[in-house]
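Homework help thread (please don't just give me the answer)

Our assignment gives two proteins as sequence + structure token strings and asks us to describe the second one. The first is just a warm-up. Here they are:
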Amino acid sequence: MSVTASDLLKMSRSGLDDVFRSSPPGSIPNGRSNGTAIFFPGSWVGVIPRWLVRLLVWKGKFFRRGDQGSSLKNLITPFAFHLFEAKVYKDDSWFADGEAVILDYSQSSFLVSSIRDEIRQVADGLYLGQVFGEEARPSVYVGVSQLTTAPHDHLDEPAGREGLQGRSR
């Protein structure tokens, strides 16, 4: 199934579940990515929180692959500060059969240490993620698009208005 970012934003929770279950983990992303939180999937009610979070709180993630393991930092605030580091690796999904790319915040700040994200690649350069908190069921879906920048490029470049789609270099 080929899916676009726009498709994800229109899907119900069960539709997102199906896409996540049927998608491969993909490779571990590298470089800056734009992100969009998906609240109240499939409902117009989620548009305002999604817009506010994107504007004021969370812009996406910055992934770094390395020989000693991979990691990421979240791009927080309108200034896209690099905060809240997570270890990134492949492991069994808590939600679906098979592997997912795990974003493990357990060694990070106490503010986010109970969070585990799982992402799977749903299209070329497009990942669908689930955010797990204390509960076993994901609380929020996220869409993350991988940009093909080198890990050291464009650290201070604004994320722009690409939303989930991103742009290639």
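The one we have to describe:
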Amino acid sequence: MSKNPTPAATRAARDLATLRESIAAMQAERDALASAGPSRAETVAAVDAWAAQAAAQAASKLNYAVKSSDITAALEVRARPDGVVQLGPLLAALMGPEVLAAALRRFIDDIPQGLPLADRRARIAELDAQILEAEMSEERAVEALEALGETVLRRADADPRAILWVPAS
């Protein structure tokens, strides 16, 4: 701003600052949504599905071993070549997928409720459109201030489409 801005320039500068705060808030919301992990409901569904699949994976082996009276083989767990021992399928089959899933769900309590992935994607697209619209308004405000003789710096992170698509007044 110049040393002696006109009242119109002062109002326009104040409006520009408010608009930039709004853009920053929308960008922060967008960034938070884009970096958010799965919602609690999605995590619970994934745990439930995994437990059911793990139980089914081990059930046939356990069923065969028990029916053939080879109880030792029923409870045998072998390490993979990389040394990993997967107890999940055996635990799910022995305890039942519901019990194992319930045991795992206690670790989910601190996951934020959050939006499901489809809703997050829709909200991000909505925010992207709102941000672009706000940035186009910002560019018009910058040009209006420049028309009043004021020097205004554009934001380095402004969408180029907002700057290039708005014709000078």
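TA reply:
I won't write it for you, but here's a hint about the kind of observation we're looking for: The chain has two domains: 1-36+115-169, 38-114.
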